[in-house]
Amino acid sequence: MDNTQIRIGIAGYGNLGRGVEAAIARNPDMTLVGVFTRRSPESVKPLSARTSVQPITALSDCRDTIDVLILCGGSKDDLPRQGPEMAARFNIVDSFDTHARIPEYFDSVDAPARANGKTALISIGWDPGMFSINRLYGEALLPDGATYTFWGKGLSQGHSDAIRRVPGVKAGVQYTLPSRDAIEQVRSGLRPELTTRQKHTRECYVVLNEGADAAEVERTIVTMPNYFADYDTTVHFISEETLLREHSRMPHGGFVIRSGNTTEAHAQVIEYSLQLESNPEFTASVLVAYARAAYRLNVQGQFGAKTAFDVAPGLLSIKTPAQLRKELL
Amino acid sequence: MDNTQIRIGIAGYGNLGRGVEAAIARNPDMTLVGVFTRRSPESVKPLSARTSVQPITALSDCRDTIDVLILCGGSKDDLPRQGPEMAARFNIVDSFDTHARIPEYFDSVDAPARANGKTALISIGWDPGMFSINRLYGEALLPDGATYTFWGKGLSQGHSDAIRRVPGVKAGVQYTLPSRDAIEQVRSGLRPELTTRQKHTRECYVVLNEGADAAEVERTIVTMPNYFADYDTTVHFISEETLLREHSRMPHGGFVIRSGNTTEAHAQVIEYSLQLESNPEFTASVLVAYARAAYRLNVQGQFGAKTAFDVAPGLLSIKTPAQLRKELL
User: Fold this and answer.
1) Which sign, positive or negative, has the C-alpha torsion A147, A152, A156, A162?
2) Quick one: which of A192, A217, A244, A250 has the most CB atoms within 10 Å?
3) Cis ω on the peptide bond leading into residue A80 (within 30° of 0)?
4) Is the dihedral of CA A111, A114, A118, A123 positive or negative?
5) Whole-model pTM?
6) Distance (Å) from the C-alpha of residue B282 to the closest C-alpha of chain A?
């Protein structure tokens, strides 16, 4: 490890930004310059009292004091505007996760980054991110094969919102679960054809309004088109206290499995899985490791937009290449 | 995919070389120039009748016709001599797997490769190789954590040899198995302290000589110092026919698990596993994907010795960066 401190800025302070603050504290080669917010700085309560909170406009004075700016806004409204703008001024890392729009977003960030000698790592996290890397490794190592991605057990925001719109429902959350049967079929090397629906089940935890008809609520949920009708859906009724106590975390995770053959005689299975108690904190931790890579790539003169596919594993580590070869190879 | 064919040579033709031949046939951007052997070429029977087999001395005429030479010799006797010699003349990929000697081997290959503008990817395979990458990713993404490597179910050559030296034993094989209990402890996020011995059990399949005392053979095996005495070891007696029918494959695999916390409140678990019906064929398939990377790195002017840590995932894929972003991210 050399002694250079990498100076990090955080743009946006929701669950993800808070996770980045926590992750920086666990990486001794990084210093947090500050949190930059569109809200009133006084309204933001960082994890550490020593964390400086400033208006996002203050970033214009930070071009020489921030090595990498981590963008913690959302993919729908924030990043499409913020990514290209910030990539012209800073090395950036973001978690842009609208899969279908990644090529377009990549181009929109690539041009300003290149023009200004900056490095922009986009779509970093676990999906897109670590799951994508494992889909790529799987295909490359077993070209004759099939790749399966399963998600869960994970809290789904959109489906939780749908439950809460059902008449008689006071509160509720929905978890997507990978189907155990489907996973076992895939692990067996059989290469089954499975739709997303066959690979997942849904589990709902619902708090009823007083006097609501549980049977009617359950029927409305499990038959709801698009959201639940085609899935194996289970509804559990719980008290508000239980909901708060047991369902306020944001777990997630999943599996990427590549099943393939090296010869007709020999099947091979590669599996990568995540079991996350906090989805935003893990995503944040991935962003911070890639901030180290963004810094190093920029020092090497590797400008423009890049994704997790373009980053050699060693660039993520605090250790030197020689240490890595000695200790981890 | 561009239309360049990458021209590959295979040096050495045992199980690994045969696996490389099979893998090249599954990668449409690669052409096999030939197998180069120290044996008499007539004695080598390649998988495909179209594969050219030549004496290893013929390599001196192939500097312009081979883009990457895959070294398929052993780490003990072949590679320490062959690696440095060949890295002066070819881009190479090898599976040097004596973990403790990797730094020394790296240096011995790096100097001739650099001096001659060649790229040498060493210690490629799954351990070292894919497991190493996952140990690195685990540490980098969850700095506050612990990493666990489990091996198996896998055939162990050294332990199989030890069984076969026991008086009364006609033939036999030994499998190393990961302990299910230990894996479950690790997956729970508890970060237990476990020795290699606590993480693995051993299973032996033994064919007795006529008249041999089964109880005595079993006692000798399970109490054998270094090999079995400190492990939970099971001995099964089987017929020679069963041994041939059910135990002539070379399965292997294992698990790399990183258990860590992003904050005190939230544990996160990353798991990578391989379930291989043929260890040499999978290793060969990894070598071939990295041959593509070696070729591309050399074209980019990245000379010298490198390991899996230095290779961005995208370099392994037959697909273009834009295709990868569109299809796999």
Assistant:
1) positive
2) A217
3) no
4) positive
5) 0.94
6) 7
At position A88, the amino acid (one-letter code) is A
Instruction: Tell me the backbone φ, ψ of residue A253, rounded to 5 degrees.
Output: 150, -160
Q: Is A224 exposed, middle or buried (0-12, 13-18, 19+ CB in 10 A)?
A: middle
The position carrying tokens 């008689």 is: A168
Beta bridge partners of B257: B148, B271
Is the Cβ–Cβ distance between B93 and B283 less than 8 Å? Answer: no
Cβ(B127)–Cβ(B276) under 8 Å?
A: no
Model confidence pLDDT, tens digit, residues A151-189: 999 998 889 999 999 999 999 999 999 999 999 999 998
pLDDT tens for B123-177 read: 999 999 999 999 999 999 999 999 999 999 999 888 999 999 999 999 999 999 9
Buried b or exposed e, range A101-123, using 16+ CB within 10 angstroms: bbeebbebbbebbbeeebbbbbb
Q: Is A301 left (phi over 0), alpha (psi -120 to 50) or beta?
A: left
B contact residues 148-177, partner A, Cβ 8 Å cutoff: none
- DSSP strand pairing (A169-178 vs A200-208): antiparallel
Rounded to whole angstroms, the Cα distance separating A255 from A325 reads 28
B144 DSSP 8-state letter: S
